[in-house]
């Protein structure tokens, strides 16, 4: 959906992918050929047992973002980290009816790693009035109604800092992102209300 809405309006979209997705037939090879960054994520327990891998994901993010500095690119970050469903929302005890908890660390790392080569965030909210479609429904063209909201926000100096080692910055960044999430939740509720009226 993002490729369709934003195609030729912003630089080519790239996003961070889980390492396992490189094995998806055809698409994985295409992502690799297009130089999409693949991330190997580790659980907290795995890192406790393998402390030498601590910070490896941060370094991978920095390395990928350094590559992006030399050509126009849009870096996509799915801040929730996974697709929404009610079970996941309930598991997280997420405060918003339509959203999972935002994960601030990856977004902060990407902003910092770009070393001020990017200056704008596009906050995109996608709402499917008829329910969240499957991948195959999208591919087949079965989805007839989609609402997309795009808000631009400049990356100011208060969004740049050491998320990992500066507790004050971490709290400030999380506060900012929670405000973004509240606006997103309000937007989805307004769209739902408009459709039901």
What is the averaged pLDDT score?
84
Report the helical percentage. Answer: 40-55%
How many individual helices? 8
End-to-end C-alpha gap? 26 Å
Strand content: 5-15%
How many domains make up the 3D coordinates? 1
Poorly predicted runs:
none
- How are the strands of the largest sheet arranged? 1-4
Radius of gyration: 18 Å
Largest sheet: 2 strands, parallel
Secondary-structure element order, N to C: HEEHEHHEHHEHEH
From the structure provided, what is the oligomeric state, counting identical versus distinct chains? Answer: single chain
Shape designation: globular
Q: Structural class, judged by helices and strands?
A: alpha/beta
DSSP summary, beta strand count? 6
Compose a concise summary of this entry.
The protein is α/β, with parallel strands linked by helices. The protein has helices at 2-6, 27-33, 44-49, 56-68, 86-92, 104-113, 135-140, 167-196; strands spanning 13-15, 17-18, 38-39, 74-76, 120-127, 147-154.
Note down, in words, how this protein is organized.
This protein is α/β, with parallel strands linked by helices and 197 residues long. It has one domain. It is built from eight helices and six strands, in the order H-E-E-H-E-H-H-E-H-H-E-H-E-H. It has helices at 2-6, 27-33, 44-49, 56-68, 86-92, 104-113, 135-140, 167-196, and strands at residues 13-15, 17-18, 38-39, 74-76, 120-127, 147-154. The strands form three sheets. The chain has a two-stranded parallel sheet with strand order 1-4. The chain has a two-stranded parallel sheet with strand order 2-3. Strand 2, helix 2 and strand 3 form a beta-alpha-beta unit. Helix 4 (56-68) packs across helix 6 (104-113).
């Amino acid at each position: 959906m993002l490729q369709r809405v934003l195609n030729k309006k912003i630089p080519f979209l790239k996003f961070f992918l889980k390492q396992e997705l490189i094995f998806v037939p055809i698409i994985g090879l295409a992502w690799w050929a297009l130089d999409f960054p693949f991330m190997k994520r580790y659980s907290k327990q795995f890192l406790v047992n393998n402390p030498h891998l601590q910070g490896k994901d941060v370094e991978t993010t920095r390395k990928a973002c350094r590559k992006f500095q030399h050509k126009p690119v849009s870096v996509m970050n799915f801040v929730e980290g996974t697709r929404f469903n009610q079970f996941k929302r309930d598991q997280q005890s997420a405060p918003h009816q339509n959203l999972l908890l935002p994960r601030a660390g990856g977004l902060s790392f990407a902003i910092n790693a770009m070393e001020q080569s990017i200056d704008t965030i596009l906050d995109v909210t996608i709402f499917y009035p008829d329910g969240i479609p499957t991948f195959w429904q999208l591919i087949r063209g079965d989805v007839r109604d989609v609402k997309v909201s795009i808000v631009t926000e400049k990356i100011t100096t208060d969004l740049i800092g050491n998320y990992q080692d500066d507790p004050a910055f971490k709290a400030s960044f999380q506060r900012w992102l929670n405000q973004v999430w509240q606006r997103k939740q309000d937007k989805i509720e307004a769209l739902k209300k408009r459709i039901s009226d």
